[in-house]
Amino acid sequence: MSEAECILHLSDIEKSYEGNRVLKGVTLSLQCGKIYGLIGQNGAGKTTLMRIIVGLIFPDSGSIQLYGKHEKNGFVRKHVGCLIESPALYANLTVLENLNIVRKLKHIELTESIKDILDMLEMDDISKKVKNCSMGMKQKVGIALALMGEPRLLVLDEPLNGLDPIMVMRLRKYLQKIVKERNITVLISSHILSEIDKIASDYILMDSGKIKKIITKKDIEIDSKDKSIEEIYQGWLERGGDNEMLNLH
Q1: What is the CATH number of domain 6-79+151-238?
Q2: For the chain, how are helix, strand and coil distributed in percent, rounded to 5?
């Protein structure tokens, strides 16, 4: 799979809830070997878009191509890892039991890569019941579930919630490592734009249910005159979030 190959293509995706259009004709292509930072205010449609990509909900209209094949309602996404909002865990089961349930459902063998993930996340006490775990530990379980099976597409919605600074750094380095080694694609959303800026190769700017602009890290480094992604995004919002008004200078 070449770096330029499109792993995911969305065309004219629409989604409404009770008459409210949350996604408005979203068209988007993601290439292999890139980390995309999805940026937008609350209510921009980011989580809805991610839920559609991973198959948790379905669009009202539009088409999805995953690995070059058209996806239809009910088709289980294979080789897609995700953490959307809070991880869905069985509170009365142990961390290990939760991991094994998902591993077996996905037909994943107990490999060294899974052990590496647990080591990276410093998940030593996996015999503890989830209901007795801290918020940070629950978040690490959700991340471990997303990473299991060596996914080709990884979708992470606010994955840094509850993680301490050292764990944030470890996760960032791990994601950069597997993208480089396996040529996978990562779509990550976080309100901590400074962390997105440390990992993303491309930025997807979203507002009012639409993809307004996609810019590369290289574009920013060349043209922004040392502006941070926060400053660029804030300036863009102040100019109305218009597709043609992302002035990097």
Answers
A1: 3.40.50.300
A2: 35, 25, 40
Count CB atoms within 10 A of the CB of residue 54. Answer: 20
Token digits of residue 100: 């094994």
Question: Within 10 A of 45 (CB to CB), how many other CB atoms are there?
Answer: 24
Residue among 135, 174, 133 at smallest CA distance from 158: 135
Contacts of 106 (CB under 8 A, 6+ apart): 148, 149
Distance CA 154, CA 60 (A): 23
DSSP 31-84: ETT-EEEEE--TTSSHHHHHHHHHTSS--SEEEEEETTEEE-TTPPPSSEEEE-
Q: Tell me the per-residue pLDDT of 189-221, one tens digit each, with 9 for 90 and over.
A: 988 888 888 999 999 999 999 998 898 887 776
- Report the predicted TM-score, pTM, of the whole model to 2 decimal places: 0.88
Strand partners, 35: 186
pLDDT in tens, 172-184: 999 999 999 999 9
* The predicted structure's pLDDT at residue 249: 39
C-alpha 204: how far from its chain's center? 12
DSSP for residue 224: S
